[in-house]
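Good morning,

Attaching, inline, the backbone tokens for the sequence recovery test we're adding to the shared suite. The designed sequence is right after.
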């Protein structure tokens, strides 16, 4: 609990993945992917309830067998281009909740409850709209280009992109390891899911499953404990 608010873990798990069909319940080392974040959420010393928002009967059945609360999400909120904020708003309205929400993902299965708890603890101790996790990029994205027709446009400037990496500020990639959001902010009209004051939380590199190759790599990693 945080004051009079619960701390809820919410996992968004739609059924229509094209990159890896049936991804959210695909078996990884004999366990459906979605079971991994659920088990870690159950170990958390902060999380009071675990919920899954899904449009898929098969996912719903797996989650109920794991003693997790399920909210049915309508199809129009579970498409390829459906933004997360709409699913979060739907969940809050359906469950009449303004509780703190810890966002975990089945597609980032190799998380640890200890790391999730460190993120929650940091969130509770700071004034912020939200918390987002990220890992350091191999080199600063200030060296990167955008492709503008047949020409390169620097992310920052040509001067910056030509500097030695040691002289550039470190940059971080949001990785979906753990995010924390507050309905107090995102339920307001015109607001984004994470608000403007986003607390940083740096994690180790986080493996996310978007393709069959990603899944095969994680399967090898889990089976060989590497």
């Amino acid at each position: 609990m945080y004051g009079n608010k619960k701390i809820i873990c919410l996992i968004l798990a739609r059924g229509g993945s094209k990159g890896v069909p049936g991804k959210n319940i695909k078996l990884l080392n004999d366990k459906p992917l979605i079971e991994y974040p659920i088990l870690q959420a159950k170990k958390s010393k902060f999380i009071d309830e675990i919920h899954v928002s899904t449009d898929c009967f098969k996912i719903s059945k797996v989650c109920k067998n794991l003693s997790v609360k399920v909210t049915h999400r309508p199809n129009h909120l579970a498409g390829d281009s459906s933004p997360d904020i709409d699913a979060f708003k739907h969940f809050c309205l359906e469950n009449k909740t303004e509780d703190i929400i810890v966002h975990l993902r089945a597609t980032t299965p190799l998380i640890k409850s200890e790391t999730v708890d460190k993120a929650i603890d940091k969130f509770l101790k700071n004034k912020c709209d939200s918390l987002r996790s990220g890992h350091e990029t191999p080199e600063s994205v200030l060296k990167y280009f955008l492709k503008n027709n047949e020409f390169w446009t620097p992310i920052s400037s040509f001067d910056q992109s030509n500097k030695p990496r040691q002289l550039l500020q470190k940059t971080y990639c949001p990785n979906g390891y753990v995010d924390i959001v507050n309905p107090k902010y995102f339920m307001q009209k015109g607001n984004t899911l994470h608000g403007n004051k986003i607390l940083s939380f740096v994690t180790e590199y986080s493996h996310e499953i978007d393709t069959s190759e990603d899944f095969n790599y994680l399967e090898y990693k889990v089976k060989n404990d590497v």
